[in-house]
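Ticket 4471: requesting a sanity check on a complex prediction with adenosine-5'-diphosphate. Repro inputs:
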Amino acid sequence: MENNKVGFFKSIQFKLIIIYVLLIFIAIQIIGVYFVRQLEEQLVSNYRTMLDERANLLAYNIEQEMVKTREDPQTLTTDINNLLREFFSVENAEVQVIDINKTVISTSNRQNTHIVGQQTTEVMVKRALVGTGDDRVVRDPQTGQRIQIVIMPIKSDNVTIGAIYIEASMEEIYEQIQQINSILATGTVIALVITALLIILVARTITSPILDMRKQAIRMAAGDFSNQVHVYSKDEIGQLANAFNDLTARIKEANASTEREKKKLSSVLTHMTDGVIATDSNGNIILMNKRAEELLETTSEVAIEKSLPDVLRMTEAYSVYELSDFTDGILLDFSNEEQDYLLQASFSVIQKENGPINGIITVLHDVTEREKIEHERREFVANVSHELRTPLTTMKSYLEALEDGALQDEELAPRFLQVTQTETERMIRLVNDLLQLSKIDSRDYQLTLQKVDFHQYLHETVDRFEMIAKDKNVTFKRKLPAFPSEVQIDKDKITQVIDNIVSNALKYSPEGATITISLVNQGKNIRVGVADQGVGIPRESQAKIFERFYRVDKARARNVGGTGLGLAIAKELVHAHGGKIWVQSTYGNGTTIYFTLPYSVSHGGA
Ligand code: ADP
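Returned structure tokens:
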């Protein structure tokens, strides 16, 4: 908001002054005009009445003088002159007396005595001599002054015997009116000045609370809600100030709650395990949480204002409308040669009912692990199906052959039955292995731990192998320390581990081979090694042999009855004990499988 002051000529003060000054001016003018006109009329009519009365009186006296019979007609003029002096002492007025012959016989104006004895040319006088009087106002052609003229016939017994002609200047009246006018004008000016001063004072009482509120509004705009405006009165402005204070309190509360919501939202966003990105209606990013920054390996500063498809490294520049059509979300593949990296992006639009889309919220999940597990699961199912199909197909074809007559063949029948039995056994082995793996995979898998002298235990195990492989021409070598070593193990499980490893050594070694079993005590754990002199494992396969269903040479492995799960089970069991398993092998020159076991298992399960 602008903080500059309102100019005086735009202020309410000025407007009020103008309005009131104009009102008062107009009122005084109207009153003045009526008053002056009335006064003028009154004065003029008074003056005329006065003149008329004087003229009447004069006319009567002159008539008396004129009708008098006198010996010397000269005395008439003198008498009339005396009468004029006696009865007509009006200032600035001249009176002439004219006889029936239109001759001026007397004048009150001493400077004008030359007209005495002359014939008058006045038309009005001539008319008066016929019997009709007259009065009118004329202007002096030289001075422009207004002059009242009154003409009156002098009658004797209803016979006109002469006339009186009065010329009276009205200037005095108009001077008076002029004076009154100027008093009015001065009065008006004084009234207006006083009004203006009063209005300035009155307007202050209106404008200062308004200015207060304005200041408060500016402070509020800047986010400061601490002040209240002063309530000066209980009038409308006072009510406005009250309402304003109420508004301040409400906005303050609203602001605080928005602020709280904001904080809540931002802490929710910060602590979310999913990445969240919000855009505006053009698809440009306006918000991004920490997790989204991590997932996209970028920062808010870099990403904000950029378009969402760009930041998600999408191949096409989709609009928000197109993005909102991906109802199931999309999978973003950021994998490179070294590692897989998959993100699932789901979009939801910010939109008021049927209104335009105001923006889009994108939620990002790291689905690398999920996809990997999903992939492994699919592969596992495919592998299991494949592993089962081979023996089943073999059995089917042998059983068909038996049905087709081979059963009667004494030589073939036992051989064929033997094959189906081998295949059945293989399937049982496979299913057993699978069951075992699924047990290990299940959450509540538990080891039954017990303290075992591993030295003693290995001796017994090798004794057992020697028994089993007695007729196989295999030599077992023991490289065991002379002292006992107590290890906490689940005996059955470790037996299975060693069985799996040793049976591999037997399977992949030629006749007459030597299998060396070693035990080394190292710091916190023991290391067991099973070395053979068999075919060995190529370097590139060494890391994979512990995977489920992995076999270096599929055909050979199947021939020797392998399921591809033995080492995978061994790995899981060793891991469950907190140990490690690995292989050392030179292709074509024997293999050694090592595994370690801690003396005591800190955790009881997988
Ligand atoms: P299998 O039941 O097929 O033996 P394993 O998981 O036990 O499955 O072994 C995986 C693969 O590792 C075997 O198919 C084999 O190719 C290879 N392998 C395991 N042990 C040896 C060994 N001692 N010598 C050579 N190859 C081996």
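Notes from triage: The longest strand covers residues 146-156. Leaving this open until the requester confirms.
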